[in-house]
Amino acid sequence: MHRALIVSRLRFALFTFLIFGTLSAHQGSKENSAGQHSSNSNTPSLKICLRLSDDSPFSGLASLHVVSPQGSELPGKPTDSEGEAILPNLVGGTYSVEASAPGFVSVKQTVEIKPGHGLEILYLVMRPDAFPDSHSIASFGGANETAAFHTPPGVDEVVPKVWPGVSCDLPAVLRGVGERMTQLVSNLEKFSATEHIEHYGVDKKGMLHSRETRSFEYLVLVSQNPVQGFQLDEFRNGSTDPSQFPAGIATNALPAMALIFHPLMMSEFNFSCEGLGRWAGGPAWQIRFEQRQDRPNRIRYYKIQGNYYPVALKGRAWIDAGTYQILRLETDLIRPVSQIDLTYERLSIEYGEVQFHSRALRLWLPATAELYWERHGRRYYRRHSFSNFKVFVVDTNQKIQRPKESYSFTNASDHDVPGVLIVTPVPSSKLNTVSIAFIVPAGHSVFKTIGAGKDVGIPSDLVASAKYIYNGPEGAVKVDASLATESTLEVVSGPSP
Predict the structure, then answer these.
(1) Where are the domains of the chain?
(2) Would you state the pLDDT for residue 400?
(3) Are 104 and 127 in contact (CB under 8 A)?
């Protein structure tokens, strides 16, 4: 049986996405805002700060109504912080303040503004409202070898219940979650975790068998460059060898799946809002997505014997209505992949907040992931769980070190490029020439390491020359070598042998 590598492929450019709304804006600076208040320190002003129960800013779709002592409604101006608005130059008196948001209990409060007292700050806590009808969302629910295993219904088989009568502003939700994904890419340079995997075979009766477990020290690097934007590299126990996984099937790049909602990926999917649902005890926007057939598939593929097989996905995500963080994501195949006899694949990922005390940083990363798939008539179930997260700071001027003693191939085009690397040893070594055929995905980088037991099984000091022939336009692939000794490297654009 050929080993398979299941991955999510990434290539993006850095992007800053600004969100504007009733209570959040990113114009100006904190220094300017502070300066305005200090210059008019005796002018009464009211700043309203919406918070969640954990004291984090509320950044959802909120409506704010402030009524003056004379009965007129006053507009608030967004500040440079999420969930905040300010009303300057007020007259003295009692003001009525009401904040409301879909899925949250409306908050009403009065505040007394006294002449000459400067800035008054009012904090309002937005608490989740009771869902009108209790419901549950199907999930794998863990493995039990003594009971039949049942997969949850597909994305289109059952649509979970949503709040009746609540409209959904899909563009606003996509802007909000897109900003969260942009922040994730900006803040993540390197993180580690402990990863635990449980893997089972599933027989025709749905019974689990042949349990295998693995535990890894899991390391993720997010590197950035002007050619491909950024890419995610994963190491388990210091290695990228897929044979570490049970059944020779590697499941990689699970943290990348949420980047379906990154601004640079959204155009490749069709999105629809099913309404306001519920997840983890709070309101969550329920978003269905499906890959567009007229756009390249860049998010997920199977890699088998050096060949890449894109997998078109459809799915559903639950977006926190108060923070726009992704709480849960599910995917199904749009259609079976006949080339590799992949007839079924079901993935569900639940996300949790990770507090990195070393940087006072809070990120949402995968907590658990469950995968069920059927290929060549064989069915498998696998569960990943992540714990002990640590984040590391990489200076902006510091570059991620690439593998030593290696050749690197970076595809600067919009199409996958096949090619062959031919490495010739020095004649005195009596070693054989090594030829490796592989594909460099669009906007991606591929590395071929050199040395005994590596991609090119020739010691680096015995390499005489190398030649890379790729099938693509001239300049489509940038090639570089990192070798301790001198050798020649020829790059040829033309039909690959």
Answers:
(1) 4-14+148-392, 30-125, 406-493
(2) 42
(3) yes
